[in-house]
Every structure is written in C-alpha cells, then in structure tokens.
C-alpha cells in the first residue's frame, strides 16, 4: 500500500478521517506508524494529498488530511479482455488498476470456461476490492470502469464498433501478424484473448469491428503477463 | 502448459519417453489427450519438436518423439533483482523464464527482509520447478541461470562491473530520471529493486558500477509487474 485510499464514509469532518479496518492494521503492522507521522493519502475518485496521524489506538486511528495533488493520468485505452479464470481475474484487476487502464470490458470467448462466470470475484464489491488494491499500489485514486459482456457476438457486432471509433484497434494475438507498435500517443482499443487464445471466428468478428491482430513474438505469455507486456509496449 | 518439457530420465530410447508425473495428469485432465494425438514437446536444454501418444494408461503414458526446432531466442539481458518475498519470488521466476531472460542475479538489499533468505523456495530444486513452469508456458527449453548474491556491497563492487562491461546498465527506479528507453537491440544489465525501492546508498553503488537510473512514470508497480513492464519496453 503506497497510498492510503479514503472513502467518503471515513470522513468525520472536511479534514478528519477515522480508520478501523485493514488500513488501520496496515498502518500499524507495515508502516509502523506513530502519532505525528505523515502519510500519503488519496480520496477515492478525487485528489491525493497528505495526512498526519493524530491518534492511534488498537481499534481506530484518526488522521488530519489535506488534498492538493491530481492523480496520475490514465492510459488512452479501452481494454477488451476475455474473462480470465477467477484467481487470475483478481490479479489482472489489480494490475489494470495499477497500470492506469480507465476502462475494461470483460467478455466471453469460446475458450472461457462457463464456470468462470459463476465466480463470486465478479460481484461488484469483489471487483472494487481488487481495483482498490491496485490503486493503492500505484498511487492513483480513480477506479477503472469495468463492463461485463457475457455474450461475445452481440457485443462485438453491436457495441464494439462505436467503442473503437477514432481509436487504433488492436488484437494481441500470437501468429504471423505485424509486431505490436511501440510508444503510441493515440487512443487504443486492445483485445486480449483467453488462455489458448481467441478462435479464428472471434478474430474475424473483432477484425470486422475494426481491430487488427498484432503479436509480441513466439513466446506464449500468461494473461496477466500479456496484459502488462502489451500495455508497457504500447504506451 | 503449452509445451511438454522432457527430462533425460524420461527417455527409454532415443525416440521414446514414458511419463508418470504431473505431466501425465496434465495430458489427461487439460489436454484430454488420446492415443494417436500429437503434442508439442521440448527437451530441457535442447530442441523442440513433436510427440505422438502411443499408449495412455492411468499411471503412465508412452510417447514417440522427434526434435527439429530451435527454442526461441533469449533476451540480451542480465537481470539483477532484489530478492522478492517468497510468494512473489515463485511468480517472478516463472515470469522471467517465460519472457526469455537468460540470467538472473538475486541480490540482497536494505529493504529485503532477512526472513526472505530462509525460504525453501530458494532451494535449487524449488527454483528449477518454477523456471520449468515458465518455460512450459512460453514454449522454451533453456533454463535461465539463477545466481544468488546474499551480500550487496561485495557483489556490486567486485563482480557487477565485469558483468555490465559492454552492456547498457540500467536501474529501474521511480523518480526524476530519464524515461526507460524502448526497443533496444544491444545487451542490457537491468537492476530492479525490492518493494519500497533501492535506498540512495544502493543507487550510488550501482551507479558507480556503471548502471544509470531510468523510470517508467509516477505509478509504483509490484515487482512482478515492473519486471514484465521494463522488459517489454526495453526489447
């Protein structure tokens, strides 16, 4: 946790918060904070700033806070991601939040196991929990938007074309394709497939919606690694 | 597992192997392989090729194998990595093997907790197990070399300068430094710090050994994500 993220419910006055949950434990056990210490804080969806620890007890801490700093810019990106297996989903959500992806569409694919859609990790509160962990890691305050699309074809045919309009549309896909471009400034829509990859029918539909396959080389990467590698290369 | 990696002990003849361990279970449960099926195989440290499944029983499988393909090229890189916490270490070892890092030096740092050096995951067999998983994921056969350096100063002063000679030496380090370069062809020595980063004394010593700090932006990434992001950007 490199940033203590504050929720509206934490505020007892405009410049005072009281913490009682895992953030209190983290301050005690990891930061080993003491009264008078200064900590970096951010307001979920708002500015970042500083806090001074006024009172620290075993069950709660009180901090005086001030905010003066914009969170870092997001990437100009919409990430279209075949739903990963539940354990990977949690890590990927942290990663995309940490790397500054503003919008993720979790979409079905032929190679997504049906059981993946049943996971409790897709509940809004569970998604938010992982995103918050990623924001705390990277020092950001703005939650990415997560959209769930359980049906591939209607999403790609009916809604994706509007999403990709005036962006560079790319499909991260191993094979005999152009190399993934580097260091872009323009807005990108990037589709990353499931373990085993998109099937040819899916690549066809994505291509018709305006996306072009690009590759990172012969090595097949895990989804989480592929997400990081593609984003880091693109921007 | 995108490549079935074969050890010398698996061979019962020049073109025959018998498998009984987790690879057998994987063939049965994930690949749902049947007699006559073809599978991609590789020989640890050697060529890749094809296997045909000759016999499949609950306790063992026999395959006929042939080898004709070079594994993918490694990156021109030596990675100097502050020892991560044990759980992260295992994932990082998989990641570096998957991404094609040929040599990793695990080094101490002020912010590496002493207990991390006690983990059984540093045993040679445990390290090898994670590297094999990464090679199987990415389709490579050549194990990276892992060097363990428990003392930072003698390593950086006495051995690092020879390692970095005629390479571009870089330290991935957040702060007011030049941006990490992109798309290099030349050999690189890259140092990545622990959670919380290298301390200034360590950056000084690394700089004297010929490495220069570069940064990826304001976001603080987990070690595993930083490794992937830096490698993907550099090469």
Briefly say what this structure is.
Chain A has about 240 residues and is an alpha/beta fold. The first copy, chain A, is about 30% helix and about 25% strand.
- The parts of chain A where pLDDT drops under 50 for at least 5 residues are none
- Compute the number of helices of chain A: 6
Chain oligomer state? homodimer
Task: Please name the fourth-level CATH homologous superfamily of the largest domain in chain A.
Answer: SPOUT methyltransferase, trefoil knot domain
Mean pLDDT of chain A: 96
Helix coverage percent of residues of chain A? 25-40%
CATH architecture of the largest domain in chain A: 3-Layer(aba) Sandwich
The side-by-side strand order for the widest beta sheet of chain A comes to 1-4-5-6-3-2
Summed up, the domain count of chain A is 2
SSE run of chain A = EEEHEEEEHEHEHEEHEH
Describe the structure.
With 235 residues, the first copy, chain A, is α/β, with parallel strands linked by helices. The first copy, chain A, has two domains: 4-69, Hypothetical PUA domain-like, domain 1 (Ribosomal Protein L25, Chain P), CATH 2.40.240.20; 77-234, Alpha/beta knot. Helices cover 30% and strands 27% of the residues of chain A. Chain A has helices at 22-29, 86-99, 124-138, 152-164, 200-208, 223-234, and strands at 4-6, 11-13, 16-19, 38-43, 48-56, 61-69, 77-82, 103-107, 145-149, 168-172, 188-192, 211-214. In chain A, the strands form two sheets. Chain A has a six-stranded mixed sheet with strand order 1-4-5-6-3-2. In chain A, helix 2 runs parallel beside helix 6 and helix 4 packs parallel to helix 5. Chains A, B: One of its GO terms (biological process) is rRNA base methylation.
